[in-house]
From TrEMBL:
Species annotation: Stenomitos frigidus AS-A4
UniProt name for this protein: VanW family protein
InterPro entries: Glycopeptide_resist_protein, Vancomycin_resist_VanW
Amino acid sequence: MMKQLIPARWRVQYKVIQRSTADVFTGQRSRLVPFSPMDGSQLQQFTPQVTIAQPIPATTLSENKKHNLALAIQRLQNVVVQPGAIFSFWHLVGEPNRAKGYLEGRTIIQNQLKADVGGGLCQLSGLLYVLSLKAGLKVLERHPHSQDIYTDATRFAPLGSDATVVYGYKDFRFKQTLAMPICLRFELSDRAIRAMLCAPLPILEYAIDFQRENVDGGIRVNAVRLLNSETNVEVLHSTVYQTKQAELAEA
């Protein structure tokens, strides 16, 4: 009850301060990637090595979603991630509020599909998650949704490939474990979004699969790296999704 008496804005700021303090004590703060996009002379040195494209589903708020995605992309486009650096989604994007031009988009709040300022950015963080897996980067923080709200007919990304982000509470982070610098690039069209991991030299792209199995009350998805066959795999992450609210995807 006491928690509910504290304004939501204050709770968010407390979580931001709490996380920032933890980053200082763990030594991560000094390794977080700063917002420093490459200039024109550097751009040609980095070429796409791993590419993922996804459709943007048409909904009543899809135009707002594309607007929000465009704003967030401005903070990620062509930012160099040096070897050993830590990429933090929220450290670069910052708080998605109205003052920065963000609009209401669809998001899941307490297992309910609702409209909230900055909604829709989870598709962007999900793309970054899959890019990280394919490039062999070390995922430090990733939060799946608790429920599978889609059906196979409405799904725009494989189940298990999501990475939800909530400012102050849930971040997406990876450690840059390659021996060369990389950068991220995005192309946003009317109906799709393309994410690219770029580097000055070729990198190994791993084959990733999201393997499902039914369990009590839901579905378990193992994100696996295929080694030399479909049966010889390395499990990277395992997530269990509840499936009671699949009808929300039609909202």
